[in-house]
Amino acid sequence: MRTYFKKRYNSFKFAFQGLVSAVRSEPHMRLHLLSAVGVAAAGFAFGITKTEWCLVVGCIGLVVTAEVLNTAIETVVNLVSPEFHPLAGRAKDLAAAAVLIAAIAAAIVGLIVFLPYVLSFAELYFGAETTV
Ligand SMILES: Nc1ncnc2c1ncn2[C@@H]1O[C@H](COP(=O)(O)OP(=O)(O)OP(=O)(O)O)[C@@H](O)[C@H]1O
């Protein structure tokens, strides 16, 4: 039983090490996390609903997960094909495309969730004639 918990603990520790390594080595990952902090701050500031939080947190998870998998694929490609190979390039491009798709989807959800709040705020404080 003790071995069971020790193994689960180690799995969690290795996963956390992977996340830390991705944050340290990937500028894009740091950018995603910084954006996530900004979006969370905006969520608290505007008082978004529970459903909107679910969408926002889901999108953050999706983008960060895509970036971690992209980093993992890049790392394996660098290991097995350090020299130029069209398939190595294709694998990296495909992995990068996954991040791009996740980021575009997250940006669209962000606009749908936050734009009405931003416009209401603008109308309230600056008297802008804006409606959505
Ligand atoms: N071994 C390779 N063979 C062929 N093309 C490659 C190879 N390595 C990289 N490339 C091409 O160069 C692009 C950039 O690769 P690189 O490893 O620099 O990743 P990156 O996009 O800069 O990732 P990051 O900035 O997240 O580390 C790849 O998307 C691919 O098109």
UniProtKB/TrEMBL annotation:
Per its UniProt record, the required cofactor names are:
Mg(2+)
Q: Can you tell me which residues bind ATP?
A: 26, 74, 83-85, 92-93
Pfam short name (any one): DAGK_prokar
Q: Where in or outside the cell?
A: Cell membrane
Q: Where is substrate bound in this sequence?
A: 67
Q: Where is the active site?
A: 67
Coiled-coil stretches are: none
Q: Which GO terms describe its cellular component?
A: plasma membrane
According to its record, how does it sit in the membrane? Multi-pass membrane protein
Q: Report the superkingdom from the record.
A: Bacteria
Q: Where are the transmembrane segments?
A: 94-119
Q: Name the UniProt key words of this record, in alphabetical order.
A: ATP-binding, Cell membrane, Kinase, Lipid biosynthesis, Lipid metabolism, Magnesium, Membrane, Metal-binding, Nucleotide-binding, Phospholipid biosynthesis, Phospholipid metabolism, Transferase, Transmembrane, Transmembrane helix
Binding locations of a divalent metal cation: 26, 74
Family of this protein: Belongs to the bacterial diacylglycerol kinase family.
* Name recorded for this polypeptide: Diacylglycerol kinase
According to its UniProt entry, this protein's organism is: Pontibacter actiniarum
